[in-house]
Design a protein that fits this description.
The protein has 14 helices and 14 strands. By secondary structure, the chain is α/β, with parallel strands linked by helices. An eight-stranded parallel beta barrel has the order 1-2-5-8-9-10-11-14, surrounded by six helices. Strands 3-4 form a two-stranded antiparallel ribbon. Strands 6-7 form a two-stranded antiparallel ribbon. The longest helix is centred in the first third of the chain and has 22 residues. The two termini are 38 Å apart. Bound molecules: phosphoenolpyruvate and manganese (II) ion. Phosphoenolpyruvate (PEP) binds next to loops.
Length: 445
Amino acid sequence: MADSVPSLEELHALPKVQQPTYDDPAEVERVTDQLRHLPPLVFAGECDELREKLAEVAQGRAFLLQGGDCAETFDTVTGDNVKGKLRVLLSMAVVMTYAGQVPVVKVGRIAGQYAKPRSKDLETRGGVSLPAYRGDAVNGFDFTPKARRHDPERLLRIYNASSATLNLVRAFVKGGFADLRSIHSWNADFVRNSNVENRYEALADEIERALAFMVTCGVSDQTLSEVDFYASHEALLLDYEHAMTRIDSRSQLPYDTSGHMVWIGERTRQLGGAHVKLLASVQNPIGIKLGPTSTPEDAIALADALDPDRIPGRITFITRMGAANVREKLPPLVKGIEASGRKVVWVCDPMHGNTFEAANGYKTRSYSDVVEELNGFFDVHDELGTWPGGVHIELTGDDVTECVGGAFQLGEADLANRYETTCDPRLNRNQSLELAFMVAERLSD
Ligand code: PEP
Ligand code: MN
């Protein structure tokens, strides 16, 4: 890793894409100055701890579950919403740990996932063109010139929203909510009317019996009542991520303190570009999205740029090939990286290569395509003798209707019922749990 952080000016002088266009540089400077004075959101030691856990994943001894909204929004920073997401992630992790018999490293797309890359700068409706919505970190979702203005003040709001979210997440995971002995209550107010829920309840019964046995035998351990949970997001906005980069007082090394793990998106991973330069200078574990056009040379060059010292757990490749491509596109990447002698974490994002527009105009994904890509991912790693290290999912704890298929067989006509995402379609709670069982089956094969 480079040992010095580039200045903001150096960073902006590099090739860069997907950045906001602010009309008042003085306002941006005022906001980033304020951010630089605010406390870190996460601590260096926590980032190191996650990197060590990811090193275990890279060695095939643990599995990564990474999930959450495509885009968090200010309106959904509520106790219920955060709790709902956490509950579904913890339930999925329990299913994978128990049925898949593998330790699960839990990472949310949460507390910072507010900025979105877009394929078009403008959105046109009824002959009117306005700047595209780029996430609450940049502008508002309403289709008005005022809301769509790129507003630097929003960088302070994402700091505050992330801080409030993280505070609640920390309280939940360390304060008793995540106690394995209350695993039934995570599900208490869910409607139990699908196969998936019944399977979950049966599994929760089994775990409860096993735990009761352990407690009767005198086992009393903090690991039953607390979980380690980490926050991650795409490090998209250079001004924000740079302002949150701090020198750790213990090690004197730089960390991006906006989240434990940050990733570089499919659209911003140019070698020699500003995003790679900034993330090369920090110590956090780094995710790199790889789409179907990635070559083994790209993957190796990115790993070399971001992790010249080959630090265990530093690099996670998040592949998002699409169900139709994964069996053809993934093997060369895995073979290339293996041949380079690196041990990285391989994670499947079965969402971003499987988005399509339904006949009624909704942007959606099909549960069966998600499963198909995951099966391809597991098969490829089985064939190559490499470890399928994890999954990266867009999900929510609510009963939304954004992806078709799954246990309730949602059809395109159902999408209108509860379509709430401001960006990509997410799996709902049931679809997410169903997926956890599918993953657990592949892990225990
Ligand atoms: C995302 O994770 O929401 C995203 C935009 O992914 P990608 O960079 O892989 O397209
Ligand atoms: Mn997305």
